[in-house]
Amino acid sequence: MIFDIDIIRKVYEQLPEKIKQVREALQRPLTLTEKVLLTHLSDGVPIKNYKRAGDYVNFAPDRVAMQDATAQMALLQLMNSGRTKVAVPSTVHCDHLIQAYKNAEADLETANITNREVYEFLRDVSNKYGIGFWKPGAGIIHQVVLENYAFPGGMMIGTDSHTPNAGGLGMIAIGVGGADAVDVMAGLPWELKMPKIIGVKLTGKLSGWSAPKDVILKVAGILTVKGGTNAVIEYFGEGAKTLSATGKGTICNMGAEVGATTSIFPFDDKSADYLEQTSRKEVADEARKIMEHLQPDQEVVDNPEMYYDQLIEINLSDLEPHINGPFTPDAAYTISEFGEAVRKNNWPRKMEVGLIGSCTNSSYEDLTRAVSIVKQAGEDHVPVKAQFLINPGSEQIRYTAERDGILQVFEDAGATIIANACGPCIGQWKREDANDRKNSIVTSFNRNFAKRNDGNPNTHAFVTSPELVAALTIAGDLCFNPLTDTLINEYGKEVKLKEPTGFEMPPNGYEVKDAGYIEPALNGSEVQISIDPNSNRLQKLEPFPAWDGEDLTNLPLLIKVKGKCTTDHISMAGPWLRFRGHLDNISDNMLIGAVNAFNDKTNAVLDPETNEYINVPALARKFKSRGVGSIVVAEENYGEGSSREHAAMEPRHLNVKVILVKSFARIHETNLKKQGMLALTFVNNDDYNKVQERDKISILGLKDFAPDRNLTVQLLHADGTIDTFEVSHTYNEQQVEWFKAGSALNAMK
Ligand code: F3S
């Protein structure tokens, strides 16, 4: 058995009594988020009214999941932790390293050859430390977790920012960096800032072309990419009960796009049906017994404005299909506004590629609704104008969809079925005609940052529901609105596409021959792990040096970043994914996507010694070789996007000492702290403007570095003048210790 029913039973046996204790301690009704979080406090942590978005609290999650790109660094750190076996059930999923090029079979074969060393490392470390291993082709981490491990009322962390997908089944599931995963796998408490709670009340019922994806595309438009920071988004209301479990997963998945800590739905009949259909009837039965505890209290539902920090109301019956983009997932347009936006902004109108899949939208329901459109177009002799790529979310979905003839319909329409993996969602797409051409693509994915899909900064990527991707791919026209427009078929006749139809779950049940799971050895002590010292892909980690006890003085500026700086800008994916287990090699991509505020260029920063503009990593390496640290200055929501801790480890490795920004994205800020970096924020955002290209920058007050105590920054400008201002931080006592020890891992040891 893949999932552990005994652990779930234990959680459920204790849940009612624990919730009673929480209610007594807080003396008020509880949201679902509070029920799950406060029943997962670490041993000895008192139950009390923690300050939301203020207090750090220690938790004891039930599970850990890791994907192959982040697992390498997480497991390299686990090997340095002194533990012999993981303390909680954990899994590794090989999904990020498979490049989409020809088709599923050929691409998987290539991946197994090119990534052999990494896959063997992940498999062997999993085997040694008692971690379940999902081999390449088994599926995308979040779909596999939803199908096998997610359970209502549970708590998990995952080394991927879309871990919240499991919230679709009522789990608090949070994306973290590998160092956090190591804490939990090592049996240590896991620390999180107690989140605020944003309530989203859903009423009505979706119909026609509207899909669960449109709920989160609309929410993204309301909250923007920062609006969910340090908050859990809790959905509730009668409308929530009308959504399929996988549809709820889609909505929770994309909560990451507004920076939310996670998102969650209450347990309902649809969740129970999904659990039963995915071979977890025992979990469904146990959850049904405590159904009332897997909901927000009725008083909360009746008076949501009293218990949520922010309330959003969406009537599903009125919800229009949305398309968001380009370049940011919060640029939301309804389908009726979108055509006009395309024309007005001069976005390339020709729709070149439609992509359906990713962890966001690759469920059976997604595929059946999209295929209903494709089938209809075929029957009405409407040709498919754009290239079409489909990636099923898991081998179970792929096998079932093949059995049910769904994949054949896509293929008959000219679509290519690519591997059950991330592929183009993470830049693992060998798109032959990408170049730097301005062009448009439409995906059912979650992210659309520049270069994210094909490495081309001029690809305008838009995200929408799978059914709309299908319609736009058929039309080959970004301005096509299937609700109002018609297409011309091969005989010159006008055809109007009918509304999509689909199945939430396969009418004949899910089926799979080889799901791709490898159980670890019961006793892995004999398993040997070897890392070739000459490897390009893997490198043993050396501990980072401890703080020397002195203020940081006269640091040269490495780069002052202008505008958006996501983890993709800091540590690009795509071809760089192959170095995720080799810190020195991957550091050559550090900040190469960030825009230099002084020349508006990427990867061109001033070397103050030669007065030439050179690459960012090259300048950092030059400073490092001389024993000089440096500093990065940036704007809002720095580190938005993924959980990859490489974005924190690379600067640490290249001797960057400080990241000073207007604001941080949550996961990235924690990742910086865990790696022993100084993550500081401007008290007054205008001070950003004072930083000049040739400044020597000092951070003063470190001897008294303590929670809630600001530090001082001194800028020594090239003309000899000085600017001084205060900067703040969010380090708690434990995190200050991480800084002093050089990293959280050093402090653990
Ligand atoms: Fe993979 Fe893209 Fe999801 S990279 S885990 S499919 S966000």
Automatic annotation (TrEMBL):
Keywords: Iron, Iron-sulfur, Lyase, Metal-binding, Transit peptide, Tricarboxylic acid cycle
The keyword Transit peptide belongs to this UniProt entry's keyword annotation: yes
Limits of the Aconitase A/isopropylmalate dehydratase small subunit swivel domain: 557-684
GO CC field: cytosol
Top EC class for this record: lyase
GO BP: tricarboxylic acid cycle
PROSITE patterns for this protein: ACONITASE_1 (PS00450), ACONITASE_2 (PS01244)
InterPro entries for this protein: Acnase/IPM_dHydase_lsu_aba_1/3 (IPR015931), Acoase/IPM_deHydtase_lsu_aba (IPR001030), Aconitase/3IPM_dehydase_swvl (IPR015928), Aconitase/IPM_isomerase (IPR050926), Aconitase_4Fe-4S_BS (IPR018136), Aconitase_4Fe-4S_dom (IPR036008), Aconitase_dom2 (IPR015932), Aconitase_mito-like (IPR006248)
Enzyme Commission identifier(s): 4.2.1.3
Reaction(s) catalysed by this chain's protein: citrate = D-threo-isocitrate
One of the record's GO molecular function terms: metal ion binding
Source organism, top-level taxon: Bacteria
Pathway(s) of this molecule: Carbohydrate metabolism; tricarboxylic acid cycle; isocitrate from oxaloacetate: step 2/2
Domain (Aconitase/3-isopropylmalate dehydratase large subunit alpha/beta/alpha) ranges: 52-476
Entry cofactors: [4Fe-4S] cluster
Pfam family, one: Aconitase
Record flagged with keyword Transit peptide: yes
Family: Belongs to the aconitase/IPM isomerase family.
Protein name as it appears in the record: Aconitate hydratase A
Species for this entry: Fermentimonas caenicola
Gene expressing this chain: aco2
